[in-house]
Every structure is written in structure tokens, then in C-alpha cells.
Write a structure and sequence with these properties.
Mean pLDDT: 91
Strand order of the largest sheet: 1-2-3-4-7-8-9
Helix content: under 10%
Distance between the termini: 28 Å
Number of domains: 1
Low-confidence stretches: none
Number of helices: 0
Strand content: over 45%
Structural class: mainly beta
CATH topology: Porin
CATH class: Mainly Beta
Order of helices and strands: EEEEEEEEE
Length: about 140
Amino acid sequence: MFNFGAGIGVRPFKRLEFKLRVLYGDEFYFRAPDITSLAIDRTKSLKADIAIYFDIVTAKYASTGLGGGARVIKGGYVDATGGVGYNTKTGYGYFGTFYMRHRFGHVMFEESFTYENIIKDSDLFKQTHMAAYGKFGMILLF
């Protein structure tokens, strides 16, 4: 899964950060075309989230912490795999993350482990996705 995005983070205190991000990338939908099969449909979608991050451990060039927030997925049209396309409605949910950050000058690399729970609704079905995955990101500091 690949997402590309931009966002802004504000640190009112040394260890607390508020983030607002907009992402564009892969989104997956599951459906059962018949009683013996499962199809995975994939589309590109616009997503936005708002989050709070808290650094548990900080050092001069690294930090580790926990975060969480809410996510919204824009509704759109999905070209179904081996079937008829369908429209999706706005999806929403929450996520939690454990992260590690490493700073090199004006660039910070972030590795994280995330759990998310997202509710997706479409013309065909309503589904809840629960997923855990690893992420890697790069943050430019100004």
C-alpha cells in the first residue's frame, strides 16, 4: 500500500504535537461475489486525519512515543475486480500508533507501528476494517 501526503504539525509543548495531514493513495474494499469467493477491490482515495502525538522518550536526535487520532476517507468510485463498479460513501474511523523518530539536520525519519479501525460504506455493503501495519515516513523540518 502506498500513500503520499502532506501535513502540518504544531508543538505547543516540548513533548506534545498536534498534526493535521492530507493523504492520497491506495484504499482496499472487500466483497463476496458469490458464496465461495472473496474479491479485493482497490482504488486511489483522498484521506485526511487529525492526530495527537506524545513523546515518551526524547534525546538530542531521536524520540519515541505514542499517538492517535481520527481519519476520514473521501467517497469515490471503485472499479471492481472482475465485476461491476460501485460508489463508496465517506469512510471514518480512528487509529493509534507507536513511533520512533530519528533526526538528521532538517530531515526526520519516522518508523511506526499503527492499528486502525475504519468504517467504510458503499452501494453494496458496509464494512469495518481493522488493520495493523508498519509505516515508514520522512518529515521535513522548517
